[in-house]
UniProtKB/TrEMBL annotation, chain A:
Residues 27-275 form the ABC transporter domain. GO terms for molecular function: ATP binding; ATP hydrolysis activity. Keywords: ATP-binding, Nucleotide-binding, Transport. It comes from the Bacteria. GO terms for cellular component: plasma membrane. This is Amino acid/amide ABC transporter ATP-binding protein 1, HAAT family.
UniProtKB/TrEMBL annotation, chain C:
It comes from Roseicitreum antarcticum. It is found in: Cell membrane. This is Amino acid/amide ABC transporter membrane protein 1, HAAT family (TC 3.A.1.4.-). The keyword Ribonucleoprotein does not apply. The chain crosses the membrane at residues 12-33, 38-57, 85-104, 116-140, 176-196, 217-241, 261-282, 294-314.
UniProtKB/TrEMBL annotation, chain D:
One of its GO terms (molecular function) is branched-chain amino acid transmembrane transporter activity. One of its GO terms (biological process) is L-amino acid transport. Residues 12-252 form the ABC transporter domain. InterPro entries: AAA+_ATPase, ABC_transporter-like_ATP-bd, BCAA_Transport_ATP-bd_LivF, P-loop_NTPase. Pfam families: ABC_tran (PF00005). Keywords: Amino-acid transport, ATP-binding, Nucleotide-binding, Transport. Transmembrane segments: none annotated. This is Amino acid/amide ABC transporter ATP-binding protein 2, HAAT family. Gene3D superfamilies: P-loop containing nucleotide triphosphate hydrolases.
TrEMBL record, chain E:
The lineage of its organism: Bacteria, Pseudomonadati, Pseudomonadota, Alphaproteobacteria, Rhodobacterales. The chain crosses the membrane at residues 28-44, 50-69, 76-95, 101-123, 130-148, 183-200, 236-259, 271-302, 322-344. This is Amino acid/amide ABC transporter membrane protein 2, HAAT family. Keywords: Cell membrane, Membrane, Transmembrane, Transmembrane helix. It comes from Roseicitreum antarcticum. Pfam families: BPD_transp_2. GO terms for cellular component: plasma membrane. GO terms for molecular function: branched-chain amino acid transmembrane transporter activity.
Length: 278, 408, 328, 274, 358
């Protein structure tokens, strides 16, 4: 393990400044290396995510942050290194199998299903919870219909939660950027994930909207105990929300620790922050 | 008040080039009868045309649109449509004439009461061809190799059985090579032919397949005079596109062509000069135009026969059928009509809906741009064909619970 | 049995030339796909239309005479002159340019930034329209096309191979010409699209219409240009195929022979069209040659597709196609 | 180049435009803006306010999304440019960097940049020099210049899109959310570039930006859009000092910057228009 | 106001999930059903039934099927003709092997056989995408047709390679063969259409439909969210082929009665059905009907107008007909790229807002 000593905590978790209890290891990345032809996107990186934590990944453009999320969600398969999920080494899996483990995410370049309504997009997020078979669905039999209604109720809660009731039936292609981001979050939430991966959830939002978004993220973490890993370039958001931060640069890890530690880490300041960030 | 003679034509689609002159010839003859004779037995002919584009479903649509309108006789002009219409025409009591195409076993009028295919069928054609080459080789084909180049469809596969049976009798080596529709691409087929070095190639082609084949034959320097087409591969459209290369190509002919018949004097006077002709006027006298004209002539003759049998001028389709079943075309009658020796003399009966089955051989002269007949009427091996017909038609009867019987 | 070997060799050789003929049609597809992301279903009909126009001009046919005659009861057919081939070909090319212009003006302009399937559909509408239009304009009968290209067996080759191997190989002279023309086309088109500013713009348009607009690429100019070039390629294909079997409706169906070629070579690769054509040509001819005794002939139609399919399973973008970018 | 000394002449004037998408969705309900020559003008506003629509209406890219300007006019140097093709506009000197990057995926980064010079007629040398300049601005692009743009990271694509626009040597750039997805250092750097181009070459900027903080620091004037209408306009300083702007766009309360953690309720958005 | 949506609120999610959420639409639907089942069979004449209505219904089924695959799941297929042939030949083999079998059952079984074949040819879709897949499905088209013309077992060794549908009865009334009345055939087809449209509607609004659409809109994202692409694509192929098989079986058994694979199920059939789907509107059940209507009824109406009313020569009319169809396709696409169904929606949206534009 190449954790910096300062950020290492006892394995059974820790208590954050605002009094939340963080549990044991949910996911550990061990010595991950990912290459695309000659490009090394991730170079021997290790870090972990604990249960209930808000974990930020930051770094300059092209550092390999999104690639890291792609490794976690099984879209990229690293050439070297292991992904440990809940204490067990995760075998090579297809992305949809990873999703079934309870890992949901949003994407940097919005990846909504453009031809579907907002409601349908979010319902798709619940796919991993649906069981009805083909024939049942075709005939719209009792259980299929009941399942649909039950899941719809949950989705409606999320819709209320994210305040997107008014666009429920709008095709997402027509939505402005910010609302799309919100729908994407809703879709990920609908999966009721254990681990939620957010790739720049607040890009393209103004402060007011970022405040809203922050609130949502905190509430999800609070209410459902969802663990969150997020990539974000807005340092205000990162420093305020996250419990621990990983910093990447050119595929390498250059820092890992609490926001305060990162803020004062000279390597991070040089590579990314530019000025010491308050 | 009038007699309805519909025409299911195809002036569009991949086979339009063949469909247009036929439809024009058919129409012009009927127009002539109207203009010159005032119709049939004093009753004027009403023509209608429906475009099938050689497409089965459109053919069915056409059939539906005309069947309530007392059509005297249907000429579907496509093997596919014929198969569709055989059961329907039985139900609707409308006679169908498939002249030199369609279902060959309809020769058996006891099973196929409403379908006629005089004056000759595909199986006749295959047999005529073999008889012709037999004659050329003084009755011995035992060391010969014959290739059938066929359009890979129900139409093209028709003669295979006959040719196989005949090869057993005459001892020639038989090989069939299929060409996929539409047939613009026959490189490998002709390479194979070049390798096999057959003595004769007979082609069951249609549409663009024909000129392509002729061109390819010329390319591999296959002797053109040993290359034969059936009567759907023997029109000007087929040879002209191949230009010089087609010189010497031969084909079967079930009737004569050209404008040198007395009837064209009337045609000129009543139809062409009057501006009543159906097409551009350019194709008058060509092979397929003549075929349309011939088909119309046979239809009109059958109608006259029906009027004669039933003693009324206003005949129904069912009466027309009777006329067709008792149709007799003699040399004298053809001469009377201004078409001396135009087709074979034949008569139809309930047992034989196909007439005589005779055909001639014609040869293309690329310099003069004409088809020249090089033989007289050649008769097919009727015994064998009747045997094959019985086999196939009785099987059909069994399958469809038909008890073979004549209608009257 | 050395003969069998020579036969097979001959079949393969003829497969190569057949493949070139397919590639001629496929080139038109590739051009338009590369330049605008449009899968141009009308390419076959364009070849037909170009050939019809060429013959019509050569023979001095009056366009729309059938329609005019039907409406006004006139008797128009021919102008009474024959246009020399050297004049008729550029004249046809002008018609194809006008066609390209009309396509841009009336159709493509209104469909900027639409999904590929919709543009595909539009080309289907265009194919229908053009097919009817061509028939009305020039008539539906079979026409003979002769631009003076040599045809028939290449005697020299047969002679030579007979001397050398004791077996005379067959090759059609028209096919040899086709190969030469195709090679010239491929080289010039590749140079154009790979090394010119316009070429780069074409590829940009295919990726993203809107972004292309935003950097000032005039979609209109680009589209007229590519459709005109595709029209030219269609004319070449029309001439070659038309010389073989006459000009009439079925000519438009050669597009179906180009599809597997396209798929194998990759929709975006000009050299791919040639390589794909050669592979398909040889593959289908040899397959037919070896397996005809076992499963019967006429396998060419499906074999070409199956071969392409087999390759695609390993390379989903075709042999030389641009890799499909999959990222999130 | 332009004479940068007279920032008071109006370069672009948008008069009361309405934009309709798909014949039914009214996205702009009468927006008027003026952009002084040689200035940096910012359009601010929440998600869906109509910022992008306004920019696309000006550059006429709206047309390719089945939208149209149904009312009003857009005057560039006094000439109405509604309906003029985007290509012509680029030749006139107006270029837009679209929201969401829009790189040519299959082209390499360098080819992407070169397409930016498509309309230029001043020869290869000048283009090469500008390419060098862009690489200087964004060294990361130089490293990745042979990669297909589709495989580069979000930020790299954003740099490519901006660099591509610079390659056309425009008089006026419409920038739609240039800072989106860029690392903080780079955001500052982009705005420095904007400022430099503005100062040195007199390039006029109209930018839609969510990062109000930075935008108002660099801009000279600003407009705030809400639901397809302009609800506030003024000089950048004036906007910066406005208490509403401060609270909703800058995230400042009376007690200075507040933590994102401390925000408690969602429903606080104030509407300037009822 | 003619058309209103306002004031039509739902209080349960089931109600909100209705097929026709707007009362006006719902009533229009009930009325259509009542007329289709209760009135049309008694007044329809043979021409309209045989030439227009029955083919329309049969092709609507095929279009529904292809729409599931192409419109909902985004897998462009040009193998429709081949799959229809599978349905027809399966029906023929089953019919002749088990003469006593209920015809409805025969048709459903033919659909199941086609579904299996569809899955087989759907396997490459896991790797091949977009137009490449479209062209790859042509392999299925050509291969299947070749098989049915080449292997005599499929046509019971008949001499010409044609297959003929023997007469079969349902409740004592003949439904196949020439003796079947138009009304009977119409009702059979209508029954299948209504039942299949209902099933399609259920499938597409549920989980499966959403995973299809997710794969269509962005397959990678769909997979990362938890959609198993293998399952989604293959079910789409299966369901779609099931529909197409039924349509082919109906075309053969109750409509044409005699069929030869190369002629009836050629490549143009694949294109025809694809055109229907795209013109009608991808991903819309209504669109399948509108598209089938446009391409089946349109030409007939045009022909009636040009030939029967205006008396134009048939060839000129036929050429004009394809020109007009082509032009109409283009005009519709330019007016609304997402097909007739979307055009209809836009019109409704406008109607709803009328008389106050936007
Ligand atoms: N292509 C389109 N079709 C239909 N409606 C659209 C389209 N594009 C935008 N809209 C609508 O126009 C309105 C304004 O959108 P616009 O994209 O201009 O907002 P924006 O201010 O740029 O928002 P953001 O900050 O999220 O980018 C929105 O309500 C949106 O729904
Ligand atoms: N599929 C791929 N093929 C080739 N190179 C890739 C691929 N995916 C990512 N890369 C490269 O790997 C590097 C890291 O990319 P990544 O998207 O992870 O960056 P990032 O940290 O998310 O940056 P940003 O903040 O700009 O989004 C980049 O240089 C990118 O070009
Ligand atoms: Mg990223
Ligand atoms: Mg925007």
């Amino acid at each position: 393990m190449t954790q910096t000593a300062t950020s290492e905590r006892p394995d059974d978790g820790y208590i954050t400044q605002d009094g939340r209890k963080i549990g044991g290891m949910l996911m550990e990345m061990r010595n991950i290396t990912l290459r695309f032809g000659g490009v090394v996107a991730i170079k021997d990186i290790s870090f972990n995510i604990r249960e209930g934590e808000i974990r930020a990944i930051i770094g300059p453009n092209g550092a390999g942050k999104s690639s890291m999320l792609n490794v976690i969600s099984g879209f990229y398969h690293p050439q070297e290194g292991d992904v440990i999920f809940r204490g067990e080494k995760r075998p090579r899996m297809k992305p949809y199998q990873v999703a079934r483990l309870g890992i949901a995410r949003t994407f940097q370049n919005i990846a909504l299903f453009g031809g579907m309504s907002v409601l349908d997009n979010i319902m798709t997020g619940r796919l991993t919870h649906m069981r009805a078979g083909l024939v049942q669905q075709a005939l719209w039999w009792g259980s299929a219909q009941r399942e649909e209604v039950k899941n719809r109720e949950k989705v409606e809660k999320i819709i209320d939660f994210l305040e997107i009731q008014h666009i429920r039936k709008t095709p997402v292609a027509r939505l402005p950027y910010g609302l799309k981001k919100r729908v994407e979050l809703a879709r990920a939430l609908a999966a009721e994930p254990k681990l939620l991966l957010l790739d720049e959830p607040m890009a393209g939002m103004n402060v007011e909207e970022k405040e809203d978004m922050s609130r949502f993220i905190l509430d999800v973490n609070d209410e459902f105990g969802t663990t969150i890993a997020l990539i974000e370039h807005d340092m205000g958001v990162v420093m305020d929300l996250s419990d621990r931060v990983v910093v990447m640069d050119y595929g390498k890890k250059i820092g890992d620790g609490t926001p305060d530690e990162i803020r004062n880490n000279q390597a991070v300041i040089d590579a990314y922050l530019g000025v010491a960030h308050d | 008040q009038d007699l309805h003679f519909p025409s299911l034509s195809y002036r569009t689609g991949p086979f339009a080039a063949g469909g247009i002159p036929f439809a024009d010839g058919y129409s012009d003859y009927l127009t002539l009868i109207n203009e010159r004779d005032g119709g049939i037995g004093g009753l004027r002919i009403r023509q209608s045309e429906c475009e099938t584009a050689y497409n089965t479903e459109r053919g069915v649509e056409c059939y539906q649109s005309m069947r309530g309108d007392a059509p005297m006789v249907l000429q579907p002009l496509s093997t596919g449509i014929t198969y569709q219409l055989i059961p329907r025409t039985i139900e609707d009591q409308i006679p169908m004439h498939t002249m030199g195409y369609g279902r060959t076993s309809a020769v058996n009028g006891e099973v196929f009461n409403w379908t006629f295919n005089y004056p000759a069928t595909y199986w006749d054609a295959a047999s005529v061809f073999i008889n012709h080459v037999l004659a050329e080789n003084s009755g011995d084909l035992s060391d010969k190799k014959i290739v059938l180049l066929y359009h890979n469809s129900a139409y093209g596969r028709e003669p295979i059985r006959t040719l196989e049976r005949l090869s057993e009798t005459h001892g020639y080596t038989f090989l069939s090579i299929g060409v996929d529709s539409p047939g613009q691409e026959q490189g490998s087929q002709w390479l194979q032919i070049r390798r096999e070095r057959p003595d004769y190639v007979i082609m069951w082609g249609w549409g663009v397949m024909n000129p392509t084949a002729i061109q390819e034959a010329a390319n591999i320097r296959f002797p053109m005079e040993n290359f034969y087409g059936n009567w759907w591969a023997g029109s000007e459209q087929d040879v002209r596109a191949a230009g010089e290369a087609a010189h010497g190509y031969k084909s079967l002919a079930m009737h004569r062509t050209g404008r040198d018949y007395p009837i064209y004097d009337d045609m000129q006077q009543y139809v062409i000069d009057a501006g009543l002709y159906a097409g551009t006027g350019e194709e008058v006298g060509t092979v397929l135009y003549s075929r349309g004209l011939y088909a119309a002539m046979l239809a009109v003759e059958a109608a006259k026969k029906a009027q004669e049998i039933h003693g009324v001028t206003e005949i129904t389709p069912a009466m027309m059928r009777d006329g067709m079943e008792q149709l007799e075309i003699t040399e004298a009658r053809m001469a009377e009509l201004g078409l001396p020796n135009f087709g074979p003399a034949f008569s139809v009966s309930c047992q034989n809906h196909s007439g005589s089955g005779e055909a001639m051989i014609q040869q293309w002269d690329a310099n003069a741009q004409t088809w020249n007949l090089i033989t007289d009427w050649i008769a097919p091996d009727r015994d064998l064909i009747m045997e094959l017909v019985a086999e196939d038609s009785l099987a059909y009867a069994a399958e469809n619970a038909i008890t073979p019987a004549c209608l009257n | 049995m050395p003969d069998q070997f020579y036969y097979a060799l001959e079949v393969a050789l003829n497969g190569l030339t057949a493949g070139v003929m397919y590639a001629l049609v496929a080139l038109g597809f590739v051009l338009i796909f590369k330049a605008s992301g449009i899968f141009n279903f009308a390419q076959g009909v364009m070849a037909l239309f170009a050939a019809l126009t060429l013959v019509g001009l050569q023979d001095g046919q009056i366009p729309f005479s059938h329609l005019i005659n039907a409406i006004f009861g006139t008797e128009l057919h021919n102008f009474g002159w024959n246009m020399p081939t050297l004049l008729a070909i550029p004249a046809t090319m002008l018609v194809m340019v006008a066609f390209a212009w009309a396509v841009e003006r009336l159709i493509l302009r209104h469909l900027i930034n639409q999904e590929p399937i919709i543009l595909f559909m539009a080309t289907i509408g265009l194919a229908y329209f053009l097919e009817g239009f061509g028939d009305i304009m020039w008539g539906a009968e079979v026409k003979r096309l002769d631009v003076g290209l040599p045809q028939g067996m290449s005697g020299a080759l047969e002679e030579f191979t007979f001397q050398t191997f004791g077996y005379g190989f067959y090759l059609d002279r028209l096919d040899i010409w086709a190969a030469g023309i195709a090679a010239a086309l491929v080289v010039s088109l590749t140079l154009f699209s790979q090394y010119t500013k316009q070429g780069r713009a074409l590829r940009a348009v295919a990726d993203d219409h809107q972004a292309a607009l935003s950097v000032g690429i005039s979609l209109r100019a680009i589209w007229v240009l590519t459709w005109a070039i595709a029209g030219f390629v269609a004319l070449v294909a029309g001439i070659m195929w038309g010389s073989k079997s006459g000009v009439q409706f079925s000519l438009s169906l050669i597009a179906l022979k180009a599809l597997p070629v396209l798929m194998l070579g990759g929709f975006t690769s000009i050299p791919g069209a040639i390589v794909g054509g050669l592979m398909i040509g040889v593959g289908e001819k040899l397959f037919d040659f070896f397996l005809q005794p076992v499963i019967g002939g006429a396998t060419e139609n499906w074999f070409a597709y199956m071969l392409a399919l087999a390759f695609l399973v390993f390379r989903p973008q075709g042999l030389f196609g641009e890799k499909i970018i999959e990222r999130v | 180049m332009l004479d940068a000394g007279r920032p008071d002449t109006t370069l672009l004037e948008v008069n009361n435009i309405e934009v309709l998408y798909n014949h039914v969705i009214l996205a702009l309900k009468g927006v008027s803006l003026t952009v002084p020559q040689g200035g940096i003008t910012a359009i601010l506003g929440g998600n869906g306010a109509g910022k992008s629509t306004t920019l696309k209406a000006i550059s006429n890219l709206i047309h390719s999304e089945r939208g149209e300007v149904t009312k009003g006019s857009v005057l560039y140097k006094g000439q109405n440019i509604v309906g003029k093709s985007p290509a012509d506009l680029v030749s006139t000197g107006v270029i837009q960097v679209m929201e969401g990057r829009h790189c040519f995926e299959h082209l390499t980064v360098e080819e992407n940049l070169l397409t930016g010079a498509y309309t230029r007629r001043d020869g290869r040398g000048a283009t090469a020099a500008d390419l060098e300049l862009v690489y200087e601005y964004f060294p990361r692009l130089r490293e990745r210049r042979k990669s297909q743009a589709g495989y580069t990271s979000g930020g790299e694509q954003q740099m490519t899109a901006i660099g591509r626009a610079l390659m056309s040597r425009p008089e006026m750039i419409l920038l739609d959310e240039p800072s989106m997805g860029l690392a903080p250092q780079l955001v500052e750097q982009i705005f420095e570039i904007v400022k430099r181009l503005n100062d040195e070459q007199g390039v006029t900027f109209l930018l839609a930006e969510q990062n109000t903080n930075v935008a108002l620091r660099y801009a000279t004037t600003g407009f705030i859009l809400e639901s397809g209408r302009v609800v506030m306009e003024g000089s950048a300083e004036a906007l910066r000092e406005n208490p509403d702007v401060k609270e909703f766009y800058l995230g400042m309360s009376d007690k200075g910057r507040k933590s994102f953690r401390d925000v408690r309720s969602y429903r606080r958005r104030k509407r300037w228009l009822a | 106001m003619l058309y209103r949506e306002a004031g039509d609120f739902k209080s349960t999610y089931t109600a909100d999930n209705q097929t026709f959420p707007i009362k006006f639409d719902r009533n229009a639907y009930y009325l259509t059903m009542a007329v289709a089942f209760g009135v049309v069979p008694f007044i329809i004449n043979d021409y309209w039934a045989q030439a227009v209505v029955i083919p329309f219904l049969i092709y609507a089924i095929a279009a529904l099927g292809l729409n599931i695959l192409t419109g909902y799941c985004g897998q462009v297929s040009l193998g429709t003709g081949g799959f229809m042939a599978v349905g027809a030949y399966a029906a023929f083999k089953i019919m002749t092997a088990f003469p006593g079998l209920n015809i409805v059952l025969v048709i459903v079984m033919a659909g199941l056989v086609t579904a299996a074949v569809g899955v087989l040819f759907g396997l490459p879709s896991l790797r091949i995408k977009g137009f490449y897949l479209a062209v790859a499905t042509l392999a299925a088209q050509f291969f299947l047709v070749w098989l049915f013309t080449r292997v005599p077992w499929f046509f019971n060794f008949s001499a010409s390679g044609q297959i003929n549908a023997p007469t079969r009865t349902l409740l004592g009334v003949p439904v196949t063969g020439a003796t079947a009345s138009s009304a009977t055939v119409y009702l059979i087809c209508l029954f299948f259409v209504v039942a299949l449209a209902w099933l399609a509607r259920n499938l597409t609004r549920g989980t499966l439909g959403r995973s299809w659409m997710a794969v269509r809109d962005m397959d990678i994202a769909a997979e990362i969210i938890g959609v198993n692409p293998l399952k989604a694509k293959l079910t789409a192929f299966a369901v779609s082929s099931f529909y197409i098989g039924i349509s082919g079986a109906l075309l053969f058994t109750v409509y044409l009665g005699a069929v030869e694979a190369g002629e009836v199920f050629g490549i143009d059939k694949s294109f025809l059905v694809l055109f229907m789907v795209i013109i009608g509107g991808l991903g819309s059940i209504l669109g399948a009907f509108l598209g089938a209507f446009f391409l089946i009824v349109g030409p007939v109406l045009l022909k009636l107008l040009l030939v029967d009313n205006l008396g134009w020569p048939t060839d000129l009319a036929a050429h004009l007909e394809i020109m007009i169809i082509g032009a109409l396709i283009l005009i519709f696409l330019i007016a609304e790229p997402h097909g007739l169904a979307a055009l209809w929606r836009t019109i409704k949206e406008k109607l709803r807002l009328w008389p106050f534009p936007y």
